[in-house]
Amino acid sequence: MKRKMPFSLSKEKSFYESLNDWIGDTLYDDLTEKGFECRDEQIYMAFQIEKALKEKKVLLAEAGVGTGKTIAYLLPAIAYARYTGKPALISCADETLIDQLVKEEGDIRKISDALQIDIDVRLAKARDQYLCLKRLEDAVDATSEVYAENVQSSLPDFVRGNLSMQSISPYGERSDYPDINDEQWKTINFHPVQQCAACDIRNRCGQTIHRNHYREAADVIICSHDFYMEHIWTKESRKRQGQLPLLPDVSMIVFDEGHLLEYSAQRALTYEVQNNTLLNLLERIMVDGVREETLRLMEQLIDLHEEFFRLLRANSNGNTTERKAINKSVELLSVGKETIAISNALLEEFVFEGELYIIPEYDLTMVEEYLEQYIFSMELFTSENDAVDWVEEAEGEMTLIIMPRLVTDILKEKLFSSNLPIVFSSATLSVGQDFTYLLDSLGIDDFLSFSVESPFDYEEVMDVIVAELEEGDKNDYVLDLLQKDEQTLILFKSEQSMKEFKEKVGEEQKEIAFEGERELSSMIRDFQSKEISVLCSYHLWEGLDVPNDALTRVIIYDLPFPPQDPLFDARRKHAENPFKEVDLPFMLLRLRQGAGRLIRTSDDYGSIHIPLEGQDKELKSVISGIFPVEIQTTIIK
């Protein structure tokens, strides 16, 4: 339903002329009178977005920290949504940043209060951010821990069927359960093998209710890059199956922290095969009355699948990286092809089983859908193609990952060929105001762009200290820093690096909080309120907004180079100079993002510490060029 425009339209002026006037009046006068800072960089950015809307172009909007990027894109987005009758979409780097954008003290609430505009903002989170009632039931039965029972007892009454469905309300988001850690959540959230369309309680499912809720948004829908990419890739197939797309049609898109979109696009096109999932699913349908031929094929597939993963483990390298490269031996590929043949034969048998109604319909549908994806994934793995594959292993669960090396052609077809205005917003879209790295990775040809600096006087409020250390001294250096009690964010290049630090500091460092111990947005709230003094994270390089004295020190534990894994190895293989074209631009962009967590407002102050060991010390002159102040060097022997 179209909402009232925030300004009057007339026959004398076009919508875009009226929008331009309203943006100027709002930023120069209305918001300034309400205590907002008047920032030339913010006003320039808003006018450039108005131009992109008018020309229906892709805009690369690089604006330094403190520009007020959120307000700069929100004003034209809200007006354009009401003009077109379709909501604007804001896509964030990850789920945590969604919660940051809509927090009580955030820019959306501030604009709404200052301009007396009721802004209809709704969240569209990825499917794994919602509780699954089916998996919750399984977890209650399978574990002796009380977390699953506590979640079950906290469900709204209508979920249990005790109230009319007229009284339903959204529930079941990850953020609703802040005290559950990430590993526990993974046992009760949505999993791709679940078949929602065939679920008998889907009308009471929190995910379904949330989907219906945000599809009615009038002004703004906020989602993650991962979820938007999943929407893009599944849109046509969902329509063919008689399902609604994950997101409704929108008027424009803002990719906040848009430099991370490529990785979300790749993840959305990724296929996974786990060693235990197939066995667990087939065991669910091995019920009394199943035909002998079907049972024989299921047992044969289980044996082949287990042999495939035994060979996969033997042919994956034994290093400590999270992603392990695979040697595609003749034997491994042969067994993989056999699993495909047996899986196809089994699918044919399931047609007859479905007519007998021996196997519960939901379970049979779930296995059939999984087998179809399993066959497609194994065909990708065993054939000659341009995909990248690797193995991951966590807590005994081995997973084969298959991902496309390039997504540029698909993005051109599915996203950039539309007549949709698209804004990439970030403080770090370029390396030295050169956008080539981003443009090449996304396949963008026709675009507008600009780059404006931060309005802050960094010389007065920020120190950057590089410590040159002997090999192995980094942990002691960081712990010595923490002896001085300050609100500190420690950033790690990977989860593995953070876990190694956690193991080395030991249990005595109880005042240090680590990402993953519980729901991240709740940890951020406690950090901002100073209930946590040291927060360790491998995700919060971008988007974290903790102003004033709630954050006065950022420690960059590692230079954030991309990992030595199959995905980045594939990119390096296709580069003339892998270090300069792949590793260095990635690291510098991410380092700028991490440093940008410190100074968020004109009242902020503090220090950034970068401990360097070994060969990293040779990069001091390179990284010094990305900071707005001259770095200070400390040599510790």
From TrEMBL:
Domain of life: Bacteria
UniProt key word Iron: no
GO molecular function, one term: nucleic acid binding
GO biological processes: nucleobase-containing compound metabolic process
Domain Helicase ATP-binding: 28-305
Xref: PROSITE patterns: HELICASE_ATP_BIND_2 (PS51193)
Enzyme Commission number(s) of this protein: 3.6.4.12
Key words of the record: ATP-binding, Helicase, Hydrolase, Nucleotide-binding
One Pfam family from the record: DEAD
Family: Belongs to the helicase family. DinG subfamily.
Protein name, as recorded: ATP-dependent DNA helicase
Origin organism lineage: Bacteria, Bacillati, Bacillota, Bacilli, Bacillales
